[in-house]
Amino acid sequence: MHAKPHLPEKTCVACGRPFSWRRKWASCWDEVKYCSRRCRGVRRSRA
Hints:
Number of strands: 2
Oligomer: single chain
Strand order of the largest sheet: 1-2
Largest sheet: 2 strands, antiparallel
Structural class: alpha+beta
Number of helices: 1
């Protein structure tokens, strides 16, 4: 397998873990805050 080039990273606001850019987020990377659907759901249940 080949190594992927360096991809931008962010930190999830719910769990604090780093996550990398994904192709599905190409058009909205600036708005992405959560690493997964689960973390997005945790935010909703805590409020």
